[in-house]
Structure formats: structure tokens, C-alpha cells
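Q: Could you write out the predicted structure for this multi-component system? I'm mainly interested in how the pieces pack against one another.
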Amino acid sequence: MSNSASKGIKQHKDNGKVVDNPWRELRRFTDARIGLGRAGISLPTNEMLAFQLSHAQARDAVNFPLDFAALSEQLQPFGESVLQLHSQAVDRSHYLQRPDLGRKLDIASRDKLTDFMSNVSAGALHQHDIAITIVDGLSSLAVQKNATAFIKQLLVLLNEQPQAWRLAPFTLVEQGRVAIGDDIGQLLNAKVVVVLIGERPGLSSPDSLGLYLTWQPKAGLNDASRNCISNIRPAGLSYQDAAQRTLYLLQEARRLNLSGVGLKDRSQDDVIEHQIHTKNFLLSE
Amino acid sequence: MSKSYRYTLGSKTYQFESLAQLMAKATPKRSGDSLAGVSASCAEERAVAQMTLAEVPLKTFLNDALIPYEDDEITRLIIDEHDKNAFAPIAHLTVGDFRNWLLSDHATSSVLTAIRAGITPEMAAAVSKIMRNQDLILVAKKCHVTTAFRNTIGLPGHLSTRLQPNHPTDNVNGIAASILDGLLYGSGDAVIGINPATDNVAQAIKLMQLMDEVIEKYQIPTQSCVLTHVTNTIECINAGAPVDLVFQSIGGTEATNSSFGFNLNTLAEAQAAALSLKRGTVGDNVMYFETGQGSSLSANAHHGLDQQTCETRAYAVARKFKPLLVNTVVGFIGPEYLFDGKEITRAGLEDHFCAKLLGVPMGCDVCYTNHAEADQNDMDNLLTLLGVAGCSFVMGIPGSDDIMLNYQTTSFHDALYARRVLGLRAAPEFELWLAKMNIMTDTKQHILADTLPSQFARSLKAISGGQ
């Protein structure tokens, strides 16, 4: 055995022949997978398997169906009706390949909403202020873990407001995309629709909930008409902060009578102002 | 006016209403063409369309514009800049003959370079549709496209990487941590390129300065880029920011690019502004473009064309502005355009082949999202195939996980794997730097140093002692 070979074995006997990276400590600045170390030039076993686990969780978040029965039960304490709806995408495979169908309600769902409205309306069409729609989207995990807890925070804030927000029934949508909320809000005659949807799962964030708000929803609107709050989950934007920002957007939408590009979320402006320097450790000394 | 095409198979006659429809139906299966409603209705129709397309003369593509000349500035660019002399050696060929010609021993690297300006995107797209994966690899490998700024990209036998140190809040230490990780794994010779989380001029300037200072301090023979809108970058240049490369996402129809908020004049203005800074040391390729099949359909601007033909037309835009790098972000768009690993792989090889045939310095973001039917094994396969095909560059990111854009692309480790198994090397100027900095003890064998290079050790120590 050559000198260098025996040295290599001695140095790395504890974990095979893995070379660790001392700069791994820089992970306090980033969630990026830096300093993974290496076996030769390849990923060490533990890091390779950790990645596989993350990917498996993200895949499960996409493919596991949302438990709508459990979600309905969680929403009961809020005292509103719960209507379960379905898009025109019949199953997950269809849903993934035909985003257009995920944006439209199937016929039975439209009938359900129309029936509901004719039951509550005597003469003139009943007006709701806000329709909250919960959509499975691309992560059932995000909805299951975060939707109810967020709604609880939001309703606390809404109930504190001097000007009331009359709630439409909660709607739950299977195989849905964001724009399906436009259809629902319109059929429920709501001034604003708030869509809670499972976002495309990231490797490190399989449970990220998105919120899309549209003033005067009607079928055919595009993303320019919406405001979005992203990454609602305990490890991201907290329920309380997300609820505060939603309230801000709701109040501004009501005041300006619009949503989307014309409604700027200025609650974040100071965050950007805070970091204007370029100083970092690579430029120290 | 577009004529229709017929093919009789036994007792059955297939009819294709136009050249655009024939191209679409001849395209290997992918979800985006089904979404657009332009794909073949069955496998037999697809095979028949390919046989019909093989009989179409290349000259037809000069006379039968898929998107009318009057309606689209990219069609005008393609037709107006077509070089008849370069086209002359292949002018008599059909699409099927062209495949044979490209594969033949006659079509050497220098011959392929000489006819480049005579090939239109539609000719390249057409022939790619009747080529198998191995054909796409074999011919692409013969097409050499070399560009330069502070180093040289695309030399035969080389594979460069874009170091992509994205951070979800643009935290400067977070970005610096990923840059350090990448440099110490030998990544970053194509470009150090950041997708900003906050996309405005002030933020872009801040990130440009950050990278400029790092490149300057460590004397790295590479270039930087902030992937912000071209109009933002023009403003950055006017404000005196250190811009190396101008970025823009581009598509293959005028309407796609309008939806992206720019046109050919905007790109010309940006190129001139970047050139005026004279920041390149070994070359003056100052543009960095990104493309990807499906963008035109996504913008509802595809004119009934299949997504691969739209994509190839974007390369006419690219080559007009002599880019340092063009990157097809192949698996980012999602499963409604490219459903699974098989479709992503095919698209990556097509994009690379068509671009190289047209003289575009193509690299590939070998990537997937978590809602696509794809995984790391699919990426290993495509990375290996593209390495064999002579791809100019791939991405490099810590542990394959982009925590800002939420998708998976190739890691620093992956690039070293490809270089090692295929005997590929970093850009020559960058390779010298890796040796000089003691990041690698053997740049030919890609052997990394076991100890931290002293200059980086000092920076690390400063921060460890500091906070």
C-alpha cells in the first residue's frame, strides 16, 4: 500500500472515505444544501439518501389525495356550511396534464352552488362579502396541515373589524387550480374570493400553502387580477403574519374596489429596504 | 400559401392540412402538444407524418412560412438573414436526405460550420423530428460553437457550469455561501448567475456589485449575471452597474416575446449597452438567453405550431445577438408541457441539437419539478447523454436543490461526475485558476484538494471568529 493510500484510509476511517467540508457551518446563512462533503467527487451515502427522502415527501404531497372528510370536520366549528366541489379534471394524471380543466367546475359542482344560492335567496340574489375556497392544488399536505389553522387566525381578525365581512359557505375543491375560485366566487355572488391552495412542493418545503385573492371574481380573469401570499406554513410565513397581510389586502381591495396589479402590498416594502449592502464573508478581511 | 400534404398507407389516406400541422403531428409525443391540440391522434398518424415530412424539400421552408412574414418579426428575421450561399450545398435535399447528409462522413465539423447560416430554425426542427436520440447526439457532437468573455466556452472536450447561488430572500451571506460551495467544487466557469428573489433595478445592482467584488477579489476568470428583465439590465448599465452579461428569457414568436415585454430592438439596445462597457477580456459575447419548450403555448402565442418548432425559432433570436450562453431550461415548465423523464430527455437532446446545428452555444438546465414524473435517475441519464453530445454547459447548484425556484437541477457533484466519466474539462482559463487556487490538486482527473485553499480559509475564519 502506498503512503498516500494508507493516509487516506487513516483520515477517513470513521465514515468510509467521505471528505467533510468545513464550510458546512455557513448553513446558518442559507437552507441551500451546501457543504455536503463527498465520496471521491460524489455525494456521501447519508446525503444522497436524505435527498431521496425529501423528494419522496414532495412526491407524496403531490399524489396523496386530500382527506376532504377530515377537512370538512375541522371546519365545522366555524359555523358555516361546507360544500365539496370538483373540477373538470377527473383524476390526478389528468389534472397534471390539463391545467385548463383544473380551472373549471364540473357540472354537478355548478349545480350545487346554484342550488345553494336559490335556497338562501328570497327574491334578490343573496350577497356575500367573502368566499373562502380551499383547493387541493399540488400539495394535499399543505392544505391538510395549514388551511384550518390559517382560517382560524383570519376569522379572528375579520370578526374584530367594525365593518362586517359576511362569509359565504366554505367550498372545498378536488383537482383544482387557482382560477377555479373565480367561478365559485361568481356563483356565490361574493365580493371577493380567497383561494387557499397547495403550492407546487419544493424539496425543502413540501407543505407550502398559497393564498390568492380576487376582488369581484368572475370566470375568465387572469393572474393580473389577483394578489398572492405565498409560503404559508410554520417554517415559512406564520399563520398570524399571513392573516394580517390578508386582512390588509382585503381592506385595500374593498377601499379601492380592485385587486391584482393595481393593489400593491406595501406591507413588505420595508423588508427590501433593510438589505441594501453587499458586504458578505467572501469580501471580509 | 401553405399547401396540404397526403400520404397513402395501404387503403388509408392521411391528410395534413398545412406544413405547420405536418410538423406538429410528426413531433415525438409530448404533453404540451396534446394540451395545444396539435399532436398526432395516434401512433400510426405520427409515424406517417414523419414519413411525409421526410419527403418535404428543405427549400419549402423558405417559401412556406409557418407564421406569416407580415405578422411576426422573428419570421422576418429568419427570412431576411437567410444566407443563400451557405444554403447552396444542401439546397437540393429533402428533410429525409438532410438527415442522411448530417449523419454522413461528409458532414464534418468545418462543413457544418460553413452551412450554418443557410439552415433555418424550421429546417433544423423538421429534421430533428425524424432523428432518433443517438442521431441528435452524434450530429450535435460534430457541431462546434465557441464563445468567449473572460474565458472560453464550448471548446470540444469541455463542459462548463453556471454556478446558480439563488437564495429565497437574496440574503448576501446566503448567496456568498453557495458561491463558495460552488467554487470549491470547481463550478462557475460558464457564469455565476443569480435569479433574484426580489426583481427590481436596485436589487439587481446590489447583486451585480456583490458578484463583481467576489470575481475581482479572487481574480476568477469568469463572468456574472443577474437574471432580471432586459429593460432592468439596461437601467443598471445606465446607472453605472458592473454588468458582464445581459439576461433575457426569449421565445420563438413575436407575440411570445411581447408577452415577456421586449422585442428585437430591445435586445439590440441592451447588447450595444453591454458592449460599450468593454468588460470582456478574451471575447465580446455579452448576452445570456434562456429558452424552453412550452413558453409560447403558455403565453398563448404559439400560432398553432408545436412547441419544439416554436422553441427552435427562438434560436434565430439568440444567434442574432451572438450570446455567450443559451440555456434550455428543459424540465422547469412542468408536466403539462413535458410529462415525464422520457419527454424531458427527448426535449433536452432536441434543443441541444437544433441550437448547435444553428450555431447557438447551447447549454442545458437538466431539471425537473416535483409534480413531473421524473427523478434524479432521469437527470443522471440526460446529463450523461448531453455530456456525450458536447453540451456547452449545465447548471451547478448545492445538492441539486434550488431553494428559491423550488425545482431540482444538476449539482456541483453532478458536473464533476460528468467531467470525470466523459473526460471533459472546465474552460481552460478557469481550469488554470482552479489549479492556482489549490481547489483541485489534479484538474485533468478532477481531484479536489482535501484541505481548504488558504485564501478561502481566511474568509471562513474571519466569519467564524466574527459572529
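A: Regarding packing and overall arrangement: The mean pLDDT of chain B is 96.
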